[in-house]
């Protein structure tokens, strides 16, 4: 029997597959706290942390999320099917198309 988090993950994977979204498990041998999944769809890349209902990311996960966001990447968290559906809908609506990088100021 799947864990509560496993049920969320199974639902998420099923919905990604139904919508043609690549949904890869993300693990790192050298870094704890990385998000559970990498979603790739039509030029968009999104990291997703899946949690059991009512759970929130651990401090080490939050630190990694901040690190990823500092590099202008998207990290989202879902702890229920409704939020999972919203993430997928936003991806299908192309909400995460990368913007042009900021221009660096020339050195004086």
Description of the structure:
The protein contains 3 helices and 4 strands, in the order αβββαβα. The protein is α+β, with helices and mostly antiparallel strands and 108 residues long. The chain has one domain: Trna Endonuclease, Chain: A, domain 1, CATH 3.40.1350. A 4-stranded mixed sheet has the order 1-2-3-4. Helix 1 packs parallel to helix 3. The longest helix is centred in the first third of the chain and has 15 residues. The protein is globular and about 60 Å long. It starts with a helix and ends in a 16-residue tail after the last helix. The model has no long low-confidence stretch (mean pLDDT 92).
End-to-end C-alpha gap:
63 Å
CATH topology assignment: Trna Endonuclease, Chain: A, domain 1
Mean pLDDT: 92
What's the story with the biggest beta sheet? Answer: 4 strands, mixed
Helix content: 25-40%
Give the overall form.
globular
- Whole-number count of domains: 1
Elements, N to C (H/E): HEEEHEH
Structural class: alpha+beta
Strand content: 15-25%
Q: Which regions have little confidence, pLDDT < 50, spanning 5+ residues?
A: none
CATH architecture: 3-Layer(aba) Sandwich
Number of strand elements = 4
CATH level-1 class: Alpha Beta
Rounded Rg: 15 Å
- Tally of alpha and pi helices: 3
Question: How do the strands line up in the largest sheet?
Answer: 1-2-3-4
């Amino acid at each position: 029997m799947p864990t509560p988090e496993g049920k969320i993950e199974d639902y998420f994977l099923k919905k990604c597959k139904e919508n043609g979204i690549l949904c890869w498990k993300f693990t790192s041998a050298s870094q704890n706290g990385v998000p559970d999944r990498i979603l790739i769809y039509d030029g968009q890349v999104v990291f997703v942390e899946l949690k059991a209902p009512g759970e929130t990311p651990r401090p080490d996960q939050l630190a990694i999320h901040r690190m990823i966001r500092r590099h202008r990447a998207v990290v989202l968290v879902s702890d229920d099917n409704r939020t999972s559906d919203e993430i997928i809908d936003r991806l299908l609506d192309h909400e995460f198309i990368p913007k042009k990088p900021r221009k660096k100021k020339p050195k004086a």
